[in-house]
Amino acid sequence: MADDDLKEHPTRAGARSRPRTPVLVIVGPTPPPVGGQTVMVDLLLRNAARFPEFRFRSVPTRFSRHLNQSGVFSLYKVWHLAEVIVRVTWTRIRSGRDAYLYFTPAGPTRMAMIRDLVLLLAVRWQFAGLVLHCHAAGMTTAYRRLPGPVRRLFTAAYGQPNLVIAVAPDGVAEGAALDAHETVMVPNGVEDLGPVGTGEVHAPVRLLFMGLVTPSKGVDVLVEALGLLAEAGVDATLTLAGEVPARYRPGLTDSIRRAGLEARVTFAGVVVGEDRRALFAATDVFCFPSFFESESFGMVVAEAMSAGVPVVTTAWRGIPYVVDHGRAGMLVPPRDPEALADSVGRVLSDDALRKGLIERGRERYEQLFTTEAHLTGMRRALCTITEGKPFP
């Protein structure tokens, strides 16, 4: 019997024991690698004391040692899946019958979905209920592409959860599609980095991208837009901060070379801590032209807003909710380098527009996307699975 169980049952006879506090078994990735989902799971675990209605127990997953390994098969992942199933089962046995499973589904890649199906089918039945926190978009869209027998397995694994937590309005449909008992939107919360931006434009202009450096994050589009800005006489540089998959880097560097932009593009690698803050402080415009299949929120966009840096990003999935086009950021169509270059040029040339985006972006961050707002929303959401209603 665990120590906390002993505390809840001080006597074995003749005394009244307090009701057991339900356990939330949190199954999800934590850093490293650093990504939106891993950061949010880590934030939840680090703030367990903020959730007195539950006892948290964690079964960390580490299917990908690097972000670019997501959705790629390996024997290590098969072994780790078996290990996670055993650990979840043992944690449920230790936790008692009133344990709830909190799970963060992966993106809609085939390998990741198969892995999650196996995991949920193996352990879900052991728990009093299921919470799905959908950090990755596109799960139910991918469902429609599955063959009939696999759809039935999908429904058995994911269907009718007690709670679906969406991170933006675009994700609320996931809960309806899964026939969830309750669907609640809780925007992600990011660390306050600022404001560190000055609103002044450097010479040369400094553009920043931060995230996994891949085509679907819009990196090729951004490089092409940088070339268009150079042709228009805008002296601009671009910093690409984030992990670059080995299979993509040769083609990317070749594209940069052929465009004559080698002197204008810098690869900064994964940047964390004070170095991250300093990079935002030195940036004139943050560019995030993502059309990533499982993009649900765009946490780096909210980070830039907190840092006081104007944002140009795409009208894709949950991102429009984050930036509020024309007020807290600028939206352009996905895969459109001309529109991206034009919007960046407008932000650079229009002082009133740029400073307005900075001010209102910071205000929107403070209203919706702080870690405090996120944790309060998470507590309200999680209380619905045991009480049937939010806490007062």
Write the topology of this structure:
Layout: H1 3-8, E1 23-29, H2 36-46, E2 55-61, H3 75-95, E3 99-103, H4 110-123, E4 129-134, H5 139-143, H6 148-158, E5 163-166, H7 172-177, E6 183-185, E7 205-210, H8 219-231, E8 236-241, H9 249-258, E9 265-269, H10 273-281, E10 285-288, H11 299-307, E11 311-314, H12 319-323, E12 330-332, H13 337-349, H14 351-368, H15 371-387
Parallel strand pairs: 1-2, 1-3, 3-4, 4-5, 5-6, 7-8, 7-10, 8-9, 10-11, 11-12
Helix pairs in contact: 3-4, 4-6, 8-13, 11-14
Descriptive notes:
The two termini are 33 Å apart. α12 links the parallel β11 (311-314) and β12 (330-332). The chain is an alpha/beta fold. α11 (299-307) packs across α14 (351-368). The protein has 2 domains: 3-189 and 371-387, Glycogen Phosphorylase B (Rossmann fold); 205-368, 3-Layer(aba) Sandwich (Rossmann fold), CATH 3.40.50.2000. It has helices at residues 3-8, 36-46, 75-95, 110-123, 139-143, 148-158, 172-177, 219-231, 249-258, 273-281, 299-307, 319-323, 337-349, 351-368, 371-387, and strands at 23-29, 55-61, 99-103, 129-134, 163-166, 183-185, 205-210, 236-241, 265-269, 285-288, 311-314, 330-332.
